[in-house]
Specification:
3-stranded antiparallel beta sheet; 3 helices; elongated; about 25% strand; alpha+beta; about 120 residues
């Protein structure tokens, strides 16, 4: 069974408090927020009402975590945001994996539009 990491963060600021490790094991089981807050020393002492958790897919954002200088959770969208060395000091960005997926979608749309235009012009 593959279980992705969980990101625990402050609801007010998006500051990441702790990330559980991802687990790949036959005996792995999902844990609850209550389980984690009682088990991990990094989470003890926090008010559960002030902390939220974001579950990530297994291996999600591996490259982003390696390359980023910092990361946080956007409290409004409840999605990860990363600051990379090239944009240090500026606003956090969407994960690189998400940016690449958006660019691929745009490229596919552009190519489809170009093919449609070429088809129209060849029939006239």
């Amino acid at each position: 069974m593959k279980i992705g990491p969980k990101v625990y963060w402050r609801k007010t600021s998006g500051e990441v408090i702790f990330m559980t490790p991802q687990v790949e094991s036959e005996s792995a089981r999902e844990t609850t927020k209550e389980d984690d807050m009682g088990f991990y020393p990094q989470l003890k002492g926090y008010d559960p009402e002030q902390v939220d958790v974001l579950k990530l897919e297994f291996d999600k954002y591996i490259e982003d975590f390696q390359k980023a200088t910092s990361y946080r959770v956007n409290p409004d969208t409840k999605t990860m945001e990363f600051t990379y060395p090239s944009n240090s000091g500026s606003a956090p960005e969407k994960p690189l994996a998400d940016q690449v997926a958006e660019l691929k979608t745009r490229q596919d749309s552009t190519e489809a539009a170009m093919l449609a235009l070429m088809d129209v012009s060849s029939t006239t």
